[in-house]
Amino acid sequence: MELETRQIQEGQELKEQLMITYESLKPINVLKKVIRDIAGPTDLKESLVQTTAGLITGYISRKLIIRSSRNPFVRLAGVFIQFGVTNFVSNHAEAITEFGHYLIDKLSALYPHRKN
């Protein structure tokens, strides 16, 4: 008797969990969650910005190396350089940002704005 009661209870819990999972996988609910995640924590935004910056700088560096070369070795080297630059920028975005701020501060100290 106790085994049957436990089996019925577990069956009910399984049905409830199945309904929760079904609701969470509906496209509108998935979209709502993605929007909440993007609008919510800044970690995701920072990670997205860092990754995007890495991809862009990697792509630009590859284009600068390859230019219009048809040499397969140069093109392969460009792919490796793109991969390396992308990873470096993505992994060291904070340090690069701090260095950029440092350079801007130094340049603004060298060339102060004149006020009329």
Plain-language structure description:
This protein has about 120 residues and is an all-alpha fold. The chain is built from 5 helices and no strands.
Helices and strands, with pairings:
Blueprint: H1 2-24, H2 27-39, H3 42-66, H4 72-91, H5 93-110
Helix pairs in contact: 3-4
Secondary-structure content class: mainly alpha
Overall mean pLDDT:
82
Helical content class: over 70%
Described by the principal axes of the CA atoms, the overall outline is: elongated
Summarize the structure.
85% of the residues lie in helices and 0% in strands. By secondary structure, it is mainly α.
Key structural traits:
mainly alpha, 2 domains, 116 residues, 5 helices, 0% strand, elongated
